[in-house]
C-alpha cells in the first residue's frame, strides 16, 4: 500500500485506520452512559457467576482475583469494554471488547500457569540471492522500568533495514522496484551470550541469575526477549509502563507521555507489548492540525498475546513503513543540521517497546532480533542484530540514602556501599532541606530494586519542588514546598511530587521526544511548558551537574600520560585499585546516567582504541552548553562526525593544527581541537559522513566519489553508533550480524557479501577500497581452496600513488591495510615471509598465509615497488 509516496506494510493497514481515528474511538467508548463495574467479590474469584444487569455497557471492568470468573448476561446483549484483568495486584492484560449474549457465559481465567519452555525462534534462512542489512539507530536506547514517579524516556527502539539482491551489480531494493519484498523481525538468541559468562567483567552470570522459579528450565537456558509483559507467576518483572494508574485508570505510559502528542494520543493506543505511535516524519507538522494525515504507526513485540499466549509466542512482526526520504527537523533547524534526507531507502520499525530484561528475568542490555526479508511469504535473507536497551541511570548514587543503597534485599548488581547521599537533605553543596523518601516509607515499586530507584526519584522531585516550586508555570500554579520543606504531605497539588507521573520533557525540551518536530513550545492544554522554562533536558542535566567537580571530574585529554595509570595513585582514593584514571572518571561522569557501569554502552572499535565519551562530545559542561543556554549545540542533532577523527588517509592525513594524533599517524584521538562544540570538519575525507549524523548517512544522492557505497546506509556495514564493529569481547552479540554477513566480525569488507564473481581491478569499493582476498579457513597455513582474486594476482599496473593511501607512502603497511581476517594470498618468491609452492589441480601455485591483523605491505608478497617510476 502506498500513501503519498510512502510504503506501509499490508499487515498494518487495519491498525493504521484504527490509529487515525483513535481519538474518536476514545470519545465513543467513554460516553457518559457507560457504567463502570468493579468485580472484587471474593465469591466471584472462586468461580461464582457475576450477573450483568439489563442492556448496559460496562467500561474498564476490573477483575481482581486468582481463578476463573464467569460473567453471564441476563439482557439481550451486554458489552464489556476493556476488561482489565488484575492478577495478584498486577495489571497484566487489556482485553478486547466482549459481547455476552443472553444466557451465555464469558469466562476469564486470571490464574497463570508457570511457563518453563523457551519460545521458538524463526528459522535462520535465505542469504543465497538476497541480503538484509539492519541496525539499531543509536547503539543504545534507554527506558525506565518504572513509570509511576517520573521518567526520562519511554520504551522506544528503532530498527532500519535494507534489502539487497546479490549479483555482479547488486540492487538496493525498494517497494517500487520489488513490491513483493517485505521485512519482519522476531526475537532470537546467542548460545554464547555474555550473560552466561561467569567471568563477565561487569555482570558475571552468578550475579545475574534467572528468576528462581525458572532455574534449570529450558526457558532459563536461553537469553531471549520476546515480550515486554510481566510474568507474576515466574517472578519476572520487566516494566509497569502499561500498568493502570489507580488514580486515573489510564496506563502509566499514557499519563506520562500524553503531553508529547498534544492531545492526539488515546489510552486505548497504549496497550501491552505495543510501542507508542510514531507519525510519518514527512507529514509533519501539518498533521497536528489534521490528525488523519499523520499516518501513525505502532510496532509490537513478537510475543504479544493475551493472557493465554504470554511467553509462548514469537511471531515475526512487520516493519510498518518504508522511508524513501526522511524528515529530520527540516522546519525547525537550519541546514545542514535539519534537512530532508533524500534516498534513505530503508524499512523502518520505529518504537519497538523493548526492556533490558530477558524472558527468564535476567538483565540483558543487548537482546537480539532476527531480521528477515521476505519475497511474498518466503524468507530470502536473515540477519541477527542487537536491539540494545538499558535502564541504568544510577540517580540513587546521590539522591538516595547510603543505608538504602546497601539494603541486603537489593540485587547484588544494584546494591552498593558507595552512594554519596550528596543530594539528600541537607544537600552537600546547597544545604537544601527537604522531606527525604526512603525504603522505610516505603517507596512504591514492584521489586526492591524499583523501590530504591523510586525513592531516589521522589527525592529528586521533592528537591526540585523546594528549590524551584515558587517559579512553576502560572498554568500549574506555585508550589509551596519551600514553606514547609520537611513535610511533603502538606504541600499543595501544584508540586511535582503531587503530580506524578511526571515526564521531564513537559518542561525541559528534548529533541528525542519531539515526535512532532516543533522545537521548544508551550501548550497549556497538554501541560507542555518547554519554551516558558527555557532550558533543555540536556542542558539542565549536564550543565547543572558539571559544577560539582568533586563528584563529576573532568576527563584528562587523550595525550595525558596519567589517563591510563592507576586512579588510586592519581587523586582518586575511592577508585577500585584495578581502575585506570580513564575508567574511573568515565564511571563517575557519563556512566552515572548513561548506561553505564554494568551496561557499558560505549563498546565498539572506538572504545577498544582508547576513545571515551569525552573525546567525542567534550566534558559535561560542554554538552550542557546548548542552544537553550547560550550555545549552538542541539542535543541529539549536533554531534561529531566520522571525519572529525578520520580526517584523511595515509597519503593525505589532513590533520588540523593542534589535533591530537594517534600513534599510527593517521587517525585522531579527539574529535575537536579547542572547542568540543566545534568538531573538526573534513568533508572531503574518504571516510566522511554525507549527512549531518552518522545514523542518517549513506544515501547515494549526496555521496561523493569514494565515500560510502551506492546508497547502503553506513550503519549497515559498520554497525550502530557507539557499537562500531568489531566489538572486542569475542562473543558479543553485536558481532554476530557481521559474522553472518561476511564470515568474520568487523566492518563489512568482503565483496562477496553482495557481489557475485570476481570484480577485477577496481577501486570503487566502499571508501575507494579494492576487492580483498577471501577468508582463509585454515589457521596458520594457506587455504588452497580459496579463489585468488584478480586484484591479488595482477595489480602491478595499478596507480601506485593510490596504493599509498592505505599501504603507506613507503609501502610498508598501515592500520588502514590491516587484514580483517586470516587471508591466503598469491606470492612471487618462495620462502619470502613463508611463501610456499602448492599443487592445485595439477598446477603449481605460490601461496602465503597472512594472520588477521597483519598490516599488508608491498614486500609481503613481492618486492616493494610502490615508489618506482
What is the topological layout?
Layout (H helix, E strand, L loop, with lengths): L1 E2 L2 E3 L4 H8 L1 H8 L5 E5 L2 H4 L3 E4 L4 E8 L3 E6 L3 E5 L2 E4 L2 E5 L3 E4 L3 E5 L20 E7 L4 E2 L7 E2 L5 E9 L5 E2 L8 E8 L63 H6 L59 E2 L2 E8 L10 E14 L15 E8 L2 E9 L2 E2 L5 H4 L2 H4 L42 H21 L33 E2 L18 E2 L4 E2 H4 L3 H10 L34 H8 L1 H4 L11 H4 L4 H5 L2 H5 L89 H5 L16 H8 L47 H4 L6 H8 L15 E4 L9 E5 L2 E8 L19
Parallel strand pairs: 3-5, 4-6, 5-7, 5-8, 13-23, 14-24
Antiparallel strand pairs: 1-2, 2-19, 6-11, 7-10, 8-9, 12-15, 15-16, 15-20, 17-18, 17-21, 19-20, 21-22, 25-26, 27-29, 28-29
Structure, explained:
It is a single chain. This protein is an alpha+beta fold and 869 residues long. It is 14% helix and 17% strand. It contains 18 helices and 29 strands. Strands 1, 2, 12, 15, 16, 19 and 20 form a 7-stranded antiparallel sheet that branches. Strands 3, 5, 7, 8, 9 and 10 form a 6-stranded mixed sheet that branches. A 4-stranded antiparallel sheet has the order 18-17-21-22.
